[in-house]
Amino acid sequence: MNLELILPLTCYLAVMIGLGFWLSRRPQQGSFVQDYFLGNRSMGGFVLAMTMVATYASASSFIGGPGAAYRMGLGWVLLAMIQVPTVWLTLGVLGKQFAHIARRVNALTINDMLYARYRSPLVVILAALGLLAAFVATMVVQFIGGARLLETVTGLPYQGGLIIFATTVLLYTLIGGFRAVVVTDAIQGVLMLLGTLVLLAGILHAGGGASAMFTALAEIDPDLVQPRGPDGFLSTSFMLSFWVLVCFGVIGLPHSAVRCLAYKDSKAMHRGIIIGTLVGALLMFGMHFAGALGRVLVPELTVPDKVMPTLMLTVLPPIVAGLFLAGPMAAIMSTIDSQLIQASATLVKDLYLNYLSRTPPSPTAIKRASRLVTLVLGLVVLWAALSPPDMIIWLNLLAFGALQAIFFWPLVLGLYWWRGNATGALASMVTGAVSYGLLTTFGIKPLGLHAIVPSLTLSGLAYVFGSLLTAPPTAEVRQLFGRD
Amino acid sequence: MTNIVSIARREATLSVALAVLYLGGWWLSAYMVPPTLMLGGWPLWFVLSCLFNPLLFVVLCVLMVRYCFKTVALDDSEPELKNSPDPASKNSPRPGEQS
Q1: What is the DSSP code string of A94-156?
Q2: pLDDT tens for residues A301-316?
Q3: Chain B (64-83) residues lying within 8 Å, Cβ to Cβ, of chain A
Q4: Contact criterion met (CB below 8 Å) for A264 and A332
Q5: Is B10 on the interface with A (CB under 8 A)?
Q6: What ipTM does the predicted assembly reach?
Q7: CB-CB: which of B1, B7, B26 is closest to A96?
Q8: Which of A1, A356, A420, A474 is most buried (CB neighbours < 10 A)?
Q9: pTM of the predicted model, to two decimals?
């Protein structure tokens, strides 16, 4: 055990819990549900930007990403730079239209939006089930990632690390709700950025400058400084698939889309786009570049996923390393918390309040139920992470793409094509989920493309044909979307 | 009402167009530059595609938001009617811009 490392980490976790408490004591402005699940639509530009970036930079980009860059070299940095447009794309495409309609129909969740647009309980129930399955799967993986990180760095046993980690996230999410989630996200975003920049500076210093390190990389394997990577692994179709998976497809990810419901005004959105794009670009570049250069400093890693923690311990003094290890922790925590809050919102708001309760329950009952559901969901995930099933990694890969395959067209075409209707949305969701599931399960890769590309194409076609073959939406819906 | 819809539509198109442009720049700088060229010890393709291109597009993104995106009141269903007494929409800014 390394006390110099554990101390700053513990402080960091304690501060996060403290923030949850402090934020929950602020006077409530709207109803409890609106406040707990949406922070009363009060997000400013900076917080919006940070929460988008932090949610997005999950364990995969802080641990898996640099690990892949370690193996693939600079080509993987090129791949990471595909993500630069995501913030302006998501906020720009969904942005105003989404926020405006959400306010008119008082929507709190993605499913509220879907209901307002399609007027079909079946769409909402399908969407809710898809969301829950995908979120639970990804949360389990994030928990495992966090605990493994603690294990590597501090020498705590896996179970112990997992419980400390899970308790922290659960506590502040439970107490503070959405507001705590976005505020901690903002802090975690800043920490990630600082941690990445300091680490990159440390690496460049330890390696004797960038050009010396490029020469050393080329000596290990000349392909490490080529855009196509070792053995041409980063082929054209591979890269193109990533353009869909991590750039354009992200518009359809429900946990970043829900942030479009929560910002204060259009000025906040504009600032959010600018800050988010800048911070995101710096973060993606820094993390992956650090991973790629790490190959020179620590060439003999057997588990590439450990490259970030190992590098921090190698190039930074322990106390600083401890503080900035909070960076990857932060990335993981901020992804879990936002999924946790959204999964509970789905259960309480979309399924329970809309379909299961005959009489509207009292506010206190809703309050209790919301927290209870958050807690139970958290515990289920924790239980699954304690003895991780082998299926989990597979599930995680599935979840990211599956969410896109299900939600992309119903969200995007629902906003911008007045003719789309419930049949189209249903057809699209089912087609997306089924084709994505089948293609990934059987490992079919048409033209070498990742399963997301054919399944998005199919689900888009299903949406268009399903809508055109059935009656157009009612006048009420059309008017809501600016069509008379 | 139709107003905010057309504004949103325009901004969505702009965002997608900028992303497509970025894809173009990314492709050209990464694959059209001979991979052996160096610039001060850095591989030239890397400098162009991972440093210069993203920075350029962050600047373009700022310009796009500053000059093409419009500030609108989100919770006001009819933003054109400025004189309707609505103190709730705190930031209903510069209504002249919306016509």
Answers
A1: HHHHHHHHHHHHT--SHHHHHHHHH--HHHHHHHHHHHHHHHHHHHHHHHHHHHHHHHHHH--
A2: 777 767 777 888 788 8
A3: 64-65, 69-75, 77
A4: no
A5: no
A6: 0.81
A7: B7
A8: A420
A9: 0.80
